[in-house]
Amino acid sequence: MVVRQAFNLVSRNDAVKRIATNAPLTRDVVRRFVAGERTSDAVRVAGELAGAGLRCTLSYLSEDVTDVAQVSAVVDQYRRLIAALEDADLTDRAELSIKLGAIGQALPDSDADQITLQNATAICEAADKVGMTATVDMEEHETVEATLSTVRQLRQRFDWLGVALQADLMRTEDDCRALSYAGSRVRLCKGAYRATEGCHQTKQDIDLAFVRCLKILMAGGGFPMIATHDPRMIEITSAVAVRHDRERSSYELQMLYGVRPDEQKRLASLGERVRVYVPYGADWYPWLVRRMAERPANLMLLLKSIGVPG
Ligand SMILES: Cc1cc2nc3c(=O)[nH]c(=O)nc-3n(C[C@H](O)[C@H](O)[C@H](O)COP(=O)(O)OP(=O)(O)OC[C@H]3O[C@@H](n4cnc5c(N)ncnc54)[C@H](O)[C@@H]3O)c2cc1C
Fold first, then answer.
1. In terms of residue numbers, what domain contains 10?
2. Angle, helices 296-305/3-12, rounded to nearest 10 degrees
3. Which one of 2, 27, 198, 300 is separated from 79 by 20 to 30 angstroms, measured CA to CA?
4. What's the predicted TM-score (pTM) here?
5. Considering its fold, how many domains does the chain have in total?
6. Are residues 158 and 197 part of one domain?
7. Percent of the chain at pLDDT exceeding 90
8. Strands 185-189 and 223-227
9. For the CA of 254, the nearest atom of ligand 1
10. Least confident of 90-94, 168-172, 209-213, 298-302
11. Are residues 244 and 209 part of one domain?
């Protein structure tokens, strides 16, 4: 089966989605990329990573939440997670990753931005009380302006709050310049939601844009969080950091849970600060499909595991 057909099958076919999401979360392929469905799973994985010398950022999986009750449930999940991390004495190793689309931005209400700000404030207040930090994920390109505006408002009270920027968007070099001041925390990634306009399209153009953004952030006074599995980008990150006399504690490398785990440990053993993005929660299917799209070998693994012939 060709890869494109396989991806279409997984992302659009309801039967495949039903089989995949009803399968117990014991399947190796899902467990590899998702900590589990419960808070306790997230805390367990955070502890395992801490034991291996790795930091983590925990993300409760819940996308495009268009219902106020669901939004409140997501905020409660984060509160529960923060309390459990405090109980497990992991608040200095773990931070939170928050998708604004899950806490109000995707609501049809005219005051969606206000609701998002209130909910993000509630999560940040809970994190702040236990000395934790958080980073706001970047989602579809239509949401970039609203996300940056919400983060700007939140940072007036929570100056530790970070935000992700997507190198594939042409605007991002300017955003990096605007956000490279002392105290700022920016996660640079290539971008997982390809836009048709205002967006670099080829891998080469995206990689070049990523390096330009990386250089801007490393030259600035903020704390760059470089999120990539790409060996070339990681090599360039180390070289650019050296060129700017940056100590290793002044930036960090980030990778996804289950992706190049040996490399995560190897980099940490060399003295790099490495943080692993750990997703958890019942709504893991869209997350997994995005990861599959990035890596066709993983897609074939998923299809096989749910019994679809390759
Ligand atoms: C910590 C973290 C946070 C992120 N947050 C966001 C966000 O907020 N918003 C957003 O849009 N996107 C986010 N992303 C996703 C990101 O934008 C990319 O879609 C994703 O990381 C793939 O790009 P890449 O840089 O790893 O390299 P790619 O260009 O996908 O791959 C380049 C090379 O990296 C290696 N590689 C890549 N994937 C794998 C793999 N699965 N297994 C083994 N080797 C691999 C291979 O050598 C490959 O040739 C995040 C990614 C990470 C790591």
1. 1-34+291-310
2. 60
3. 27
4. 0.92
5. 2
6. yes
7. 76
8. parallel
9. 1
10. 298-302
11. yes
